[in-house]
Design brief:
This protein is mostly helical. Helix content is about 80%, strand content about 0%. The termini are far apart.
């Protein structure tokens, strides 16, 4: 029996390793997004600074593990078996849940997930024990700490509301003071700003980051508390003078603030949130050692866990190893970069590739905000408006190469996040680090006018999606962990082993899927260079390259999908048809994203060129979209026909279709080669051959319609599908001919004159 539970404890620690890896990947957004977004240093340097903070915070963490021991459940009323069911269910649920959020690139709170998982597992067992209690004396309050759940829920609302309002207000004032060309207004303000910022961050480190460190005795904590005002005043004066001197020495004070803020948040995160990752396994280990030492043959169902009421004494080796794992996760996790990217993209100053679509609620919010803005424009005097607008002149913005926002906003994000967390701690309000840092970044981006009318609906949808994910985290964590605990409780070791296997399978599958998704999406370096370049001619060159890649890739995909669909229909291969139809749907979604990127690029080229190229750009993009619809109209009827097991195509029609397909693919390959190499010498011949192919297909359609009138009615369905293939194939020829023309005139400087054979009319389009 003891051996079995030792195995469970070992597995709890294995899950703790996974939890540290996925948890740090998710929470990296808390302390790295501002530094990464402002490009205060290269990613490696930022990671090193954050890693030092994480490691120091981890090895100094102590006394924070009690929440997993007796913060949620009352262990004196639970047996060893019941506690192990709860703890194992919590770890299985937590690892899988956090990995799902990381894969989606959405930041969530590890504190909320752990607390609500503990609540879910405890709640279901508490109900079972109350129902099975013959004395009727047990109550829900005897079994669990419901106040903790209420405080976390309250913290969610307070975090979102307070952080957004304060973040918007403080960033607006900061921008009024410094402007976007902040280097013009640093003569004396930078010293005061730097003094406030560094003092705030130092206070944050002392109060939030180091309050549970082993060397912080009660006497030292008391002295700091008694002399806080004196300490902070001295620090403010000293650091104000120091920052002013550094500015005179041509050192960028904002970079110091951002890196110090990154370090301080990383330190506080590791010191306070480590319990979220290893608290549960340590509680399980403590329960196991207590049972082995003191059970004296007592059954696992009757040995009560009163030992967990005592405070945790975490061995230093566990803290050290946790710090090593967290640093490793921070340095190597691609999912951490994915989560950071979500936060940075939503706060980005310039327009770019929007990760989220639009929603009805976001559109309503934008309309209401626009109405309020129009009212304020009428009320505020024109002179005041002009002065404010001069401070928000985006043409003067100072951005590091590839940065999403400037150093002023990055500094405000970090300092304000630290201050709000300290205020919440002082007022005994459980403000989540994740919630505060993310929402402050959203509020500051709104104040910086980063949410334009062109991008606001997408940014708000993204923010609402992330906030919605936080509430979903609590609900899903509670329900899933309750269900897993319930099943484990009644199935004993069998259920535990099954859920262990399910957790391992889901983690492996999730990572495989993520790698496949990452390879499919890739990194759009051309678009990044296009959006960061200030040279309009360079933007035009990059835009042409981006459009060329789009057109060639979609012609190549169309040829491949057409072959797959027709082969699937000829060979009655339903699996192949399903894959082709699903792949076509995915490509349509990807095309929408690429088109949005290219439209943003089109806005950044010289206006005369944009007007000239506009028609050809949209014709090419529309042609790609029409090819996808054409494939869909071919694939769906073929899939339905094969799925219903209707009559197959006759050998004569198979040969006929393969002949048309061969000629079509040959011409599409020539078209793809011409666009890819940007050589259109053969374009006229390709267009001519395409016209001939259209005539050939038209003749086949007429023959097929004549055959249908004479054929057996039993073969009517397959004849209709074949006729549809011919009709859509003819349409496909017309589409890629338009695409070739569009690429020819978009890439080159030549524009056909009115009356020229290449000039497109409504009829030809």
């Amino acid at each position: 029996m003891e051996t079995i539970y030792l195995g469970i404890v070992i597995f709890l620690f294995m899950l703790a390793v996974f939890d540290l890896l996925v948890g740090v990947s998710n929470d990296a957004v808390n302390f790295m997004n501002s530094a990464v977004g402002a490009k205060v240093a290269n990613f490696k340097t930022i990671t090193i600074v954050a890693a030092i903070g994480v490691f120091i915070g981890a090895i100094l963490s102590n006394g924070m593990m009690d929440i997993a021991r007796h913060g949620i459940f009352q262990p004196v009323n639970f047996s060893f078996y019941e506690i192990m069911c709860i703890l194992l269910a919590v770890m299985v649920t937590d690892v899988v849940l956090l990995d799902v959020f990381n894969t989606l690139g959405l930041p969530t709170s590890t504190t909320v997930s752990m607390v609500f998982e503990l609540l879910g597992g405890t709640f279901i067992l508490a109900l079972l024990k109350i129902m099975g209690d013959e004395t009727g004396l047990l109550t829900l309050g005897d079994m669990m700490n419901t106040e903790k759940a209420l405080s976390v829920i309250m913290g969610i609302f307070l975090s979102v509301a307070i952080a957004f309002i304060v973040g918007t207000f403080v960033q607006y004032i900061s921008r009024i003071i410094f402007g976007f060309n902040y280097k013009k207004h640093l003569s004396w303000t930078i010293g005061i700003f730097g003094g406030i910022a560094v003092t705030s961050l130092l206070y944050f480190i002392l109060i939030k980051g180091l309050k549970s460190a082993p060397f912080m005795t009660d006497a030292s904590k008391g002295w700091i508390e008694e002399n806080t005002t004196l300490l902070m005043t001295a620090c403010f004066i000293g650091f104000t003078v120091l920052m002013q001197i550094l500015h005179w020495c041509k050192i960028n004070v904002f970079k110091i603030i951002v890196l110090l803020g990154t370090f301080s948040l990383a330190l506080a995160f590791a010191g306070n949130d480590l319990v979220n990752f290893i608290g549960v396994p340590l509680a399980g280990f403590s329960a196991y050692t207590d049972y082995v030492a003191n059970s004296n043959g007592t059954d696992i169902h009757h040995f009560m866990m009163s030992s967990l009421m005592s405070s945790a004494k975490t061995p230093a080796i566990f803290l050290f190893l946790s710090g090593i794992i967290m640093v490793y996760a921070l340095a190597t996790s691609k999912k951490a970069k994915n989560v950071i990217k979500t936060s940075v993209d939503l706060a980005r100053q310039e327009e770019g590739d929007e990760m989220f679509g639009s929603s009805a609620l976001a559109r309503t919010i934008v309309r209401r905000a626009t109405s309020i803005n129009e009212f304020l424009v009428k009320v505020i005097p024109a002179g005041v408006r002009r002065w404010i607008d001069s401070r928000f002149n985006k043409d003067e913005i100072i951005l590091e190469n590839g940065a999403a926002f400037d150093l002023v906003r990055a500094s405000v994000n970090l300092v304000l996040s630290g201050l709000l967390i300290i205020i919440g701690t002082t007022m005994k309000l459980p403000l989540s680090t994740t919630y505060v840092t993310f929402i402050v970044a959203m509020g500051s981006s709104l104040a910086d006018r980063a949410w334009t009318r062109e991008s606001a609906v997408y940014r708000i949808t993204g923010m609402l999606s992330v906030i919605g994910g936080w509430f979903i985290t609590a609900f899903v964590a509670f329900i899933v962990c309750a269900l897993v605990t319930f099943i484990m409780f009644y199935t004993s070791f069998v259920g535990m082993v099954i859920f262990i296997g399910v957790a391992v399978f889901l983690l492996i599958r999730s990572n495989i899927k993520y790698k496949q998704k990452e390879q499919a999406e890739g990194q759009d370096d051309i678009f990044k260079r296009m959006m960061s370049s200030k040279d309009k001619n360079e933007v035009l060159s990059l835009l042409r390259q981006h459009v060329k890649e789009t057109l060639t890739s979609y012609i190549g995909f169309t040829e491949k999908a057409y072959i797959q669909i027709t082969d699937g229909f000829i060979n009655e291969d339903l699996k192949s048809l399903r894959k082709a139809v699903n792949a076509t749907d995915d490509q349509r979604k990807m095309l929408k994203k690429r088109r949005r990127k290219e439209i943003l690029g089109l806005r950044r080229i010289p206006i005369t060129t944009a007007i000239e190229k506009n028609t050809w750009f949209h014709l090419g993009s529309n042609s790609c979209e029409q090819m996808m619809y054409c494939l869909k109209r071919i694939g769906e009827p073929c899939k339905e026909h094969v799925d219903n097991n209707f009559n197959p195509l006759t050998p004569e029609r198979k040969t006929e279709l393969q002949g048309v397909r061969q000629e079509l693919c040959k011409l599409m390959e020539r078209t793809q080669s011409a666009i890819e190499n940007n050589t259109y010498d053969d374009a006229d011949d390709i267009l001519k051959k395409g016209d001939e192919l259209k005539n050939t297909i038209s003749a086949l359609r007429k023959q097929q319609m004549n055959r249908m009138q004479e054929s057996d009615s039993n073969r009517l369905k397959v004849s209709m599908v074949y006729l549809n293939i011919l009709q859509e194939t003819q349409e496909l020829v017309s589409i890629w001919r338009h695409l070739l023309r569009a690429s020819r005139f978009f890439q080159g400087d030549y524009v056909p004159q009115e009356g020229h054979p290449e000039m497109l009319t409504e009829h030809t389009i």
